[in-house]
Write the structure tokens for this entry.
Amino acid sequence: MKKLKLSVLASALLFSAGSIANEQPNAADLVGKFYGGLHLTATNFDDERVEDATGVQGSDLDLSNGAGLELGYRYSEKTEFRFSVTAINVDIENDFDDEDGSAVSLDVLYFPTAKNFYLLGGVNNLNVFDTEISANVGLGYRHYFSEKLAAYGEAKVHYQLDDFYFDSTYQIGLIYFFGTKSKPVPKQDYTTPVAPAPVDLDNDGIVDSADNCLSTPANDNVDANGCTIFTEETLTQRLSVNFGNNSAEVPASADAELAQTAKFLKHYPQTSMTINGYTSTQGNADYNLALSQKRADAVVASLVNDYGVDASRLSAVGYGETNLLNTENTKAAHQENRRIEATVSVVEKVRSVK
């Protein structure tokens, strides 16, 4: 019957129970990290291996030393995967030459409490005399010197599947975790629904869910629906030009006022204007009526020809001696009455600003 080295497991249990855990990193901080390491091994091979290999009964294998490298990955708070390669110096008694051996292992490490103590299981491709696949189980203990550096000790037994050999291994190692510390993920309380924070993208004081105008300018006053408040404002343009005695020629002094009137009419193309012509009381009334019409027509012609106003928006009416501004019979009064007058108004919506 094959000899199972139970002393190995007993020793490992004593090691784990007697160790005092050093302050270690939170298991969640290790998740997703790789680590690399070095290890030393002492393997107690089944005596029947050498008997089968040499054909000599009574041959024995001493405790064989080894060293190797490993690469691990922390998959979850309680689970790791580890790949290791070990070179082994196989020490044979009875004057046989020593053999060089090797082992390639793939193990799963399970930490029941997500702390130092772990169980392991896996497969081992063992090359001693010949290449054989073994299943292995074991236990271990990891001691952290810092958040990244740790040492461990473990013991495991191997069961060779074809020839039914039982082997056992002691292993100590030093490992180093790569990468920076993970940021803790805050726990979500899924029992109490959390209302989403109200959103007001245009910062007008009305949340988007109640805002009918989602992109109002930041400086506008808005109503309860989040839309800009407009007020109505009446804009008026007045035109007044005085003429010389018995003249219908538009004086050069009126250029600035005509230009301003043309600008207003072009800015508000929906408007129209009537030019009203007047005279003083000097002279014949019928003559003065015709002269007032000529004066009004002259201003219309200037706005069209000199300032580009559409003729269809303008009209001219002469009123002669009526609607006097000054009824006195003086030179100054007569000059004041020789004129044209026009007024245009428009109602415009104006933004209310803060």
